[in-house]
Structures are given as C-alpha cells and as structure tokens.
Amino acid sequence: MKMKKFLAVMAVVSMTAAMAAGCGSSEEEGKAETTEASGETDASFDSANDISVTSREDGSGTRGAFIELLGIEEKDDEGNKIDNTTEEANITNSTSVMMSTVAGNEYAIGYISLGSLDDSVKAVKVDGAEATEDNIKDGSYKVARPFNIATKEDVSEVTQDFIDYILSEEGQEIVSDNGYISLDDVKPYAGSKPEGKIVIAGSSSISPVMEKLKEAYLKVNTSAEIEIQTSDSTTGMTSAIDGICDIGMASRELKDEEKEQLKATVIATDGIAVIVNKANPMDELTSDQIKEIYTGEVLAWDELN
Hints:
Blueprint: H1 2-38, E1 52-56, H2 61-69, E2 73-75, E3 81-83, E4 90-92, H3 95-103, E5 108-113, E6 122-123, E7 125-126, H4 133-137, E8 144-151, H5 157-166, H6 169-177, E9 196-203, H7 207-220, E10 224-231, H8 233-241, E11 247-250, H9 256-259, E12 263-276, E13 284-285, H10 287-294
Parallel strand pairs: 1-4, 1-5, 7-13, 9-10, 9-11
Antiparallel strand pairs: 2-3, 5-12, 6-12, 8-11, 8-12
C-alpha cells in the first residue's frame, strides 16, 4: 500500500511539473508571437555601433543625383564639383547589390531607386516625408530625379518607333505600374512597327523598367529586336556618343558636355529611397543627418541628434 501511495504521489508531482513547463512554454511562445506581430525591431541592435555607409560606384546616375540632392557634392572656388562621400563607404556596382548589402548588415545605410524598393529593406522618411509617388508629385519628398534616355539627333526608324512607344499611353502605363512617376498628357501609340535592331545601354536603375517596356513593345512590333546592356549612366552616355548603342540610359540630368552631343528625353521621374536594415529602429532622417553620415561627420547611429 505504501508503495502504491508513493507511486501515486510521484505521478501527481510529474503531471504538475509537466503542466507548469507547458504553461511556461506557452507563455514564452505567446511573448515571441506578440513581439513578432508588433513589428518591433531586433532587440540586439546596438546604436553605439558604427554606421556602415554604402554607396554606388563613380559613374552611377543614382549616386550622381543622390550626392547632388543631399549636398554631399559641393563646388570648390574654381567651380569644380567635389564628391565628399566618405572614403570609408562600401561601394556597390548595382541596385541589387546595394539592396542585398543593406539587407545583410543591420548597421548599414544605402540608397536605391524607389521603383526597385521591396520588403527586404526599410525606407526611412526624409525630412518627415515618406518616399511615395504622391509625395514626390507634391514636392514634399525632395530626393527625386529624372529618368533620361539620350540619342544622337538622327536615329533609325525602329529606334524612333520604340521611343514613341515609351512616351505613349501604353508605355507610360508600364512606367506607372512599375512604381515610377509617369508623364502627363500622353497619347496612344500609333507607330509604324518597322523592322530592325536597337541597342540600349546604361543605368542599372532604368534597366528594370526598360526591360518591361522592351517586352511589351516586342509584342506589338514582332519585327524588332532589342538588346539591353546594363552598366551605369556615364557609360550609357559615352556609348551613345561613340555610337556603340542607339539609346543611352541616364538616371540623372545630362552633363553639359553630354548635352552638346546628345538629345535627352525624360521618360519618367523616380524617387531615391534612403534605406536601412529592417532591424534598425530608425524610421526617419533629415537631409542634414544623411549628409553628415555620407560625409563621415557622423560615425555611429547614436551620434545622430
């Protein structure tokens, strides 16, 4: 009998312990779910760590527009433009590499075309405004630039027909559908659909939407052939000047020396999103703070005022 009582008591103790453990586990799981559902950032983020500044390569139209709009580029006494981007910056050579770099480093900051933004990173507000199409249109989000294509004065019939398609209602609908700001007062495409090949070269920021425009145009004009060579804005302009390509792409305004040799056409407006890692609690920066980060005046996240 004593043995039976002992076993019974041990069984009750075991059940009680199991229930307590299960309850504790449920509570912990509930806390984890609550934290995840609330969208809180990673508690391990240490704002005392150095900011990992990430920028684009020389020749990038996105870099050119970014440093100009944020005051990182300044003119010396002789009028020469000086890029004051910190020498400590990590340099990436494309939009996709920029995004993966920031997504993989919780202390990183970078910038990309708004049309390329996805949920792998977080876009911060700049001067209180979100990077959205409406805010760019009304001027509250000021970090924006034109998407230009550039050609020689005389172009082939098929090149002109494709440009006409880009600037048409159909082409501008593709621009808008892909997250960029389309042109106003456009008309339906009414081209002649000529035969021939077009070579397009330049900006990696424009390439994604240009691929979509190419795909749609080739369904309309099956006699055309289009090759897109992705590089950077400066290479695109140089290639157009040298006759290596028919159309150059530049995600910035053309330089004076480029304007002397090429005809520029704006095909869209694009915002530049300032991005951080999703674990970063920072949701907003001022233009001055971004400038201080990229010129190396501010080195750690907790130095931002």
